[in-house]
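Let's sit down with a protein and look at its sequence and fold side by side. Go ahead whenever you are ready, and we will take it from there.
>
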Amino acid sequence: MRALILGASGGIGRALVSALRGRGEVIGLSRSGHGLEVTDEGSVAAALGRLEPGFDLVIVATGALVLGGAGPEKSLRAVTAEGLASQFAVNAVGPALVMKHALRLMPRDRVSRLAVLSARVGSIGDNALGGWYGYRAAKAALNQFVRTAAIEARRTHPQSVFVCLHPGTVETGLAPDLRAGHPAVSAEVAAGNLLRVLEGLGPEATGGFYDWKGEVVPW
């Protein structure tokens, strides 16, 4: 198996690379290690353009909750144009650009999977608490990007699987002080959960949104 992990220097990304070693070729790319800036299409095109096609698995594990020192908004009064733009750039636009340039790397003649780490807070139907305007909206936009890309990809890659994955609450540097007491699992456990879910998803599941247990998350 050939696997490509974007965001390989982050907690979950690094754990995914480690978990996949021994299963075949694993390539991990990150901003800190390789200069990959997912919000810059030139950077994405250059990094992925150097790779040869034939990846059975592509996982986009990039993302951020706190940007420019600003955490998630607790009320409308805290919403700013700059904050919203930053959230969309990192959490929605970046992964969309990766999908654009990663599709050519996926085989057309067999099952291949592309997963993007989303978040349950991006679910509109599951939103009962409010707040976190920019992060919620960016993840909701990300979900729509993945859903739409899945439809297009099936036309040329009929066995492709494009999905959004919610990893659960994970012990990473994303924002430990914002977990609100929710129990968290290690990045290694989260990576194992995500790979187990992915391995169980076939082409019929493409375009879906799933949590770390493999259960469907409402849009």
The mean pLDDT is 95. Strands lie at 2-6, 25-29, 57-60, 112-117, 160-166, 209-211.
